Amino acid sequence: MADEPTDYKPRCVNLYSKAMLVFGEAFADDPEHQGGMSNFWCLCTSKSYGPDGDEVGLKQCSNKERSCFQEY
User: Fold this and answer.
1) What 8-state DSSP symbol labels residue 7?
2) Residue 70 counted as domain residue
3) pTM score
């Protein structure tokens, strides 16, 4: 039997963290991510803020209203 589908939560394709690079799409299983300790950055700026000047994070970069949002 195939794995049960998980709820899809859109995020920007340019959002990255070390956990994403190590764990791939299972990055939420990283203990540091669970503790809210992951540092995110934007691939467009290589900084902790996006091209629109706003903060980068899983919640922030799931906002489709951001001008720089590109759905993953």
Assistant:
1) P
2) yes
3) 0.78
